[in-house]
Design goal:
about 25% strand; about 140 residues; alpha/beta; Nucleotidyltransferase, domain 5; globular; about 45% helix; five-stranded mixed sheet
Length: about 140
Amino acid sequence: MKYLGIDYGLKNVGIAVSDDEGKMAFAKIVLDNDEALLRNIKKIIKEDRVEEIVLGESLNLSGELNLIMKKIIPFKKKLEDVTGLKVHFQKELFTSAEAERVQGQSLRNVRKSERKEKKVFLKKNDASAAALILRSYLDKK
């Protein structure tokens, strides 16, 4: 079974896909969080023959809903309605920080004049975070 992993953000949404057997996760793309988001996700689902979706569940350190989760919950409902696929939540704690560590890319200690150029590379971290979320879910299965 093939899965799609999503790291939802207010500006960017990281996308990852599994292999056909649903054993490994691969970073795919970062989409803008705009009016075309659901349409773009639906296109990826069709092209990659995705059967189920894994969406990062964002909680604070106390395990309570954080501010972004209040956007993720209605997004999950829309995603299910638009795609007709089952959407699973997978807890995501520090996935973006882990993606930064793995990619070796961070804005920490970067001069303001260099931040714009580096932000292009950092978008990759969102797709890597989606792959980490998806991998966590697949490892549970």
